[in-house]
Amino acid sequence: MPRPILATIHPGALRHNLARARRAARDARVWAVVKADAYGHGIERVFDALRGADGFALLDLAEAARLRALGWRGPILLLEGAFEPRDLELCSRLGLWHAVHCDAQIDMLAAHKTQAGHRVFLKMDSGMHRLGFAPHRMGAAWTRLNALPQVEEVSLMTHFANADVDADADDGAGARVGLDAQLECFARAVGDLPGERSLANSAALLRHGHRPEVRADWVRPGIALYGSAPDFPGHDAAHWDLRPAMTLSTRLIGVQEIGAGAAVGYGSTFVADRPMRIGTAACGYADGYPRHAGTGTPVMVDGRRTRLLGRVSMDMLALDLTGLPNAGVGSPVTLWGRDAASGAVLPIDRVAGAAGTVGYELMCAVAPRVPVAVDEDAGGADA
Ligand SMILES: *Cc1c(COP(=O)(O)O)cnc(C)c1O
To answer: Residue 260 to residues 97, 255, 257, 263, 266: CA-CA distances in angstroms?
Structure first.
């Protein structure tokens, strides 16, 4: 028997979440963000469920080629644009739209020989200070791009740094640039330049999508499509009516009866204060489970909530079986996602929160050694 760990992808949940994003987007078009191999889910596995989007956004040219190979003929947007001149040849050949965020990319385009007119998203830095032209340089960049014979259409984009929190959130992050400040900065800098606009990631779409200037012409949800709340712990996935697109599951491969005072795992960080039954599950950090998840991280065994004990090792982790007298070797364990036995959801965001990280990182980090199944009929399909 293979090692029992398994990641299961739920296309029904992806469809549901895309419909949810579309509702929030109203008349705006939707880029389904599928970078990082669809946030770890696998582009080929999510493609059919997400093909109702208006376009796909990602940043790896090889992934864009995989979408074309799947038969997608609609828009594909490269969120970081071209990295070197020959990338533009692939953009021409595959009909990729691409972000333009710096002068070097305009230089590349100006030197690029092509028959196909390129569609570009001119990117502005409105306060995140990651990628994009400074506000005072947008007008000149637009004029230069618009004059290039290689360019057919110039659209405008920016990205929010803090769409997941309230502007007045008092959590010690003093210099936080708020969504409204970024909106104003963008509106002022692009003024009445012609072209479609795109601003909103999942957090902006779900939290502020009722505002037309946030939805604009194109929205760019990523994490919401995969069923994780972009603003956890402020809100959870259930609040946003999002369903988990991935379940990570395994089984118990060992059970121990330990006495009071016995310690569990590397570093002996958990010490029993009474006699306990504990289980060992076949999942560790080499599978992508976060090593920084400590005692108390939620896990499901036999469809019931319990907790992790001690340190996660490379291939195994320990679970509290108190109150689970029927659990034994072979019992199903759900690490996140939808528990197959009970149908209950263990949100990936809770596990991430216990490990000091975000759902994004966990779903992207599921290791290549974990086999992946696609669950065609359960796991969140709409009735
Ligand atoms: C990743 C990304 C998104 C999607 O962000 P989510 O928080 O996953 O919705 C949108 N726009 C850009 C530019 C991105 O890099």
So the answer is: 62, 16, 10, 9, 18
pTM of the model: 0.96
Closest atom of ligand 1 to 163 CA is 7
**Looking at the structure, do residues 176 and 98 belong to the same domain, yes or no?**
yes
Instruction: Report if residue 380 sits inside a domain.
Output: no
For ligand 1, is residue 158 a contact (CB within 6 Å)? no
Of 220, 231, 360, the residue with max ligand 1 atoms within 8 A of its CB, to mutate for a pocket test, comes to 220
Q: Is 163 in the pocket of ligand 1 (CB under 6 A)?
A: no
CATH code where residue 175 lies: 3.20.20.10
Q: How far apart are CA 205 and CA 31, in angstroms?
A: 12
Are 99 and 18 within one domain?
yes
Is the C-beta atom of 202 inside 6 A of ligand 1?
Answer: yes
How many domains, in total, are found in the chain?
2
Atom index in ligand 1 nearest the CA of residue 99 equals 13
For residue 56, the enclosing domain spans 11-226
Phi, psi of 108 (to 5 degrees): -60, -45
**CATH number of the domain bearing residue 370:** 2.40.37.10
Determine which one of 35, 39, 123, 285 is catalytic. 35
Residue 338 Cα distances to 16, 59, 193, 290, 312, angstroms: 15, 29, 46, 18, 21
Establish if 188 belongs to a structural domain.
yes
Q: Ligand 1 centroid vs 124 CA: distance in angstroms?
A: 15
109 shares a domain with 27? yes
To the query of whether residue 35 is one of the catalytic residues in this protein, the response is yes
Per-residue pLDDT of the chain (383 residues; tens, 9 = 90+): 789 999 999 999 999 999 999 999 999 999 999 999 999 999 999 999 999 999 999 999 999 999 999 999 999 999 999 999 999 999 999 999 999 999 999 999 999 999 899 999 999 999 999 999 999 999 999 999 999 999 999 999 999 999 999 876 666 666 789 999 999 999 999 998 999 999 999 999 999 999 999 999 999 999 999 999 999 999 999 999 999 999 999 999 999 999 999 999 999 999 999 999 999 999 999 999 999 999 999 999 999 999 999 999 999 999 999 999 999 999 999 999 999 989 999 999 999 999 999 999 999 999 999 999 999 865 444 43
Query: 108-133 b/e with 16+ CB inside 10 Å = b?
Result: bbeebeeeeebbbbbbbbbbeeebbb
Residue 277 lies in a domain: yes
Distance from residue 176's CA to the centre of ligand 1 (Å):
19
- Kindly state whether residue 55 falls inside one of the protein's structural domains: yes
Ligand 1 pocket member 222 (CB < 6 A)? yes
Q: Encoding tokens for residue 332?
A: 């199903």
Instruction: Name the residue with the closest Cα to ligand 1, atom 4.
Output: 222
